[in-house]
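FAQ

Q: What does a record look like?
A: Structure on top, sequence underneath. For example:
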């Protein structure tokens, strides 16, 4: 980041939070300012989905019992080919699969896709992670 493009500000935090943060930052090899920038970006990314029409890129991570939902999940994904760009399917064991669904599109549409997938009974865990696009 260019020096003239940054703004200095002050933040009040409990001492223990600052100590823990500084220890973590040091272990990662970051400067405190860079770590705060990354934390702010991650915080905003977490809530990008709630902004609806914003275009985002991200991934839906699913762990599921393929004997109960494989065809249903595929059918749901076919309804969202406008936002699904790629999928990776990994066999965990005889019953369980892990799938990564790469998505780009309106946050609201992607959130609807994630909700629909999560409602399926064989889906054990689902996580949606997105980043706002410039």
């Amino acid at each position: 980041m260019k020096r003239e493009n940054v703004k200095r500000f002050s933040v009040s935090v409990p001492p223990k939070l600052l100590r823990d943060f500084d220890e973590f930052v040091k272990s990662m090899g970051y400067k405190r300012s860079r770590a705060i920038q990354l934390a702010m970006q991650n915080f905003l990314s977490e809530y990008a989905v709630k902004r609806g029409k914003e275009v985002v890129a991200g991934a839906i991570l699913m762990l599921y019992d393929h004997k109960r939902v494989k065809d249903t999940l595929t059918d749901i994904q076919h309804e969202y080919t406008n936002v699904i760009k790629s999928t990776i399917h990994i066999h965990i064991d005889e019953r369980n699969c892990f799938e990564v669904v790469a998505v780009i599109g309106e946050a609201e549409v992607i959130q609807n896709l994630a909700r629909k997938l999560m409602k399926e009974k064989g889906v054990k865990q689902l996580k949606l992670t997105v980043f706002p696009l410039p």
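Q: Is there anything notable about this one?
A: Residues 12-46 form one domain.
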